[in-house]
Structure formats: structure tokens, C-alpha cells
Amino acid sequence: MRLYGIVGAGGFGREVLPVAESMLKATDPVPDFEIVFVVEYGQSQSINGHRVLLLDEFLASDAEKYFNIAIADAVVRERIAEQMIAHGIAPFSIQALNSMSLSSNQIGEGAILCPFTLVTANATIGRFFHANIYSYIAHDCQIGNFVTFAPNVHCNGHVIVEDYAYIGTGAILKQGSAENPLVIGRGAIVGMGAVVTKSVAPYTTVVGNPAKPLVKH
Global pTM? Predict the structure, then answer.
């Protein structure tokens, strides 16, 4: 029996696990797998009818194992991904049955495309990307590794989102062009509801409409 682990049993993990389960059942008419939550700390238990395994228990299992990570923090996500891969455990991508990837897109390993998400055409997406519900990525976008889109992010065409960036709920990234793409820098944070009309420097937080760097008083 195959064992699929969803690392993280918080709110996002509890949303993602049934999406993964539906996807796996649709591709395997006679399911021969178990899908479980995996947590780093705490104790073994059951959540929403699924076992919860400690990370060490999951790593020690003799089953054929696969994993994905439903944790928003990009640094934690990368650390756990590298630990799993170092133990010979393969990542699997999760794509809701009603999500869509239309034409000539390249999506890296370990992606999560939640319900009602859309990737249109000729987009390149890195490893362990999260697209929460109702988010979309338009044509010719380049999305880095360990990037997070919260719900309802609108990423228009010719946008570059570099590694570890976090795009908040309802944010709109203005369309760029082939010659002058809009760039969200490495590790940048775009606040919820922000309308980004200009490129954002690395490790900068922007908020508002139009989005501007957050000033702490």
C-alpha cells in the first residue's frame, strides 16, 4: 500500500488533504493507498478521519511513501522538502479536479493547485508552489520556488515572482510586458488586497492601492 503524507495539519493542511484524496481516487479506481497528516511535533492522533503521524514515524515507515507540504512558511517548506527528499521520499503534486492548467505550462514538483485555480498559457512555475482557492496565473508568467499565493490572487501576464515570495489574499499584480515584466522580488510580501503596479524589491513588504512599501512607525 502506498502512503501519502500531507505535512501540516493546520487549516491549510485540512483543506488540502481532501483535495489530494479526491485527485488520487480519480486516478486510481481501486485505491490502494492511505493519505495521512504528518506533523513534526505533538502526538499521533486522528484528524477528520485521517491518521496523524509524527515526522519520524512517517520517515520510518516501510511503505512506498510520497509527500507534499501544506505549510505557508517558505523556509519551513523548503527545509522539510529537502529532509524528505534526502530520505528518498518522492514529492507528489496536488491539483484539484476543478483547477485548470490550459496550455504549454511548466509546473515544478510538489505544487498545490487548490479548487478553482487557473494557470493559463506558457507559464513557468517552480518547486513547491502553493495556489490557494480562486487564484490565477496568466500567460507568460515566471513563478519561482516555494512561492505562496493566498486565496484569490490575480497574477496577470508577464509577471515574474521570485523565490520565497508571499502574495496575500486578493492581491492584484498588474500585467507587465515581455520587454518590461513586473517583478516581485525574492522573499517579498504583498499584503492582502494590494494592487501592485510597480516592481517590488526583494524582501520588501508592500500594501495598499497602489501598493507601496510598508513603513513601520
Answer: 0.95
